[in-house]
Each structure stands twice: as C-alpha cells, then as structure tokens.
Amino acid sequence: MDAQLKRGVLEVCVLSALLKEPSYGYRIIKSLSPVVKISESTLYPILKRLETSGYLSVRSLEHNGRLRKYYAINESGKDRLRQFIDEWEGIADIYTYIQNEVRQL
Q1: CB of 101 closer than 8 Å to CB of 81
Q2: For a tag on the chain, would you pick the N or C end, based on fewer CB atoms within 10 A?
Q3: In terms of C-beta density within 10 A (0-12 exposed, 13-18 middle, 19 or more buried), how is residue 18 classed?
C-alpha cells in the first residue's frame, strides 16, 4: 500500500478508535488489532500529528504511580472522520471502475 495512503488510513483508524471513549496508547493498539497491526513506534507519532492538527485533546492522569496520557477525539476530529467517509466514497467509485476494467481483460 502506498505510504501516504496508509498514513491517512491509520490516522482515521486511530480517530475511530477514540469515538466511544478517551483512551491511551496500549489500549488503542489493542482495539485496532483486529483490523490493522500498528506498533507503538507508529502510533505515537500519529497521535502527536492528530493532536497538533487539532483533532485530539490530551490529558495526563496518574495510573499506578505513573502518568498516562489519555487521548480524546474532539469535534474537529469527528469532522475529519466525516470528511474521510465522503472522500472514500469517491475512491470506492474509482476502485469499482478499475476492478471492472481489469475483469474484462
């Protein structure tokens, strides 16, 4: 998969994982594991980009004597997900066209 496309898809996967409730890194990785394998070294830069872009809010809470960052999607993040769905419908149309052309070979 193209690196840029994969990057964009992973970002919206992370946003989607935060729709129900705020979460922390390890739990995000676990919630995404049925659909995509993502490592901590991939996740944390994505979380930082999403925070910098204004799609997430972050707060630190103490857990077992250590600070843990919790990430929460905000309205801008939800708008980004809606935008992704709208864009993906167009990509799906292109995919269907290509698929139909290839089947005719």
Answers
A1: no
A2: C
A3: buried
pLDDT at 79: 98
How far is Cα 72 from Cα 63, in angstroms, rounded to an integer? 17
Domain that holds residue 63: 3-103
- Please give the C-alpha separations between residue 12 and each of 61, 74, 77, 79, 101, in angstroms, as whole numbers: 25, 13, 9, 11, 29
Task: Please state, in angstroms and rounded to a whole number, the distance separating the CA atoms of residues 47 and 50.
Answer: 5
Please state the domain count of the chain. Answer: 1
Q: Which two tokens stand for residue 18?
A: 């935060």
User: What is the separation of C-alpha 80 from the centre of its chain, rounded to a whole number of angstroms?
Assistant: 10
Q: Give the up-direction half-sphere exposure of residue 18: CA atoms within 13 A in the CB hemisphere.
A: 29
User: What does DSSP assign to residue 53?
Assistant: T
Retrieve residue 35's tokens: 């659909």
Locate tokens 């676990």: which residue? 30
Positions in the chain whose pLDDT score sits under 50: none
**Distance from C-alpha of 84 to C-alpha of 86, rounded to nearest angstrom:** 5
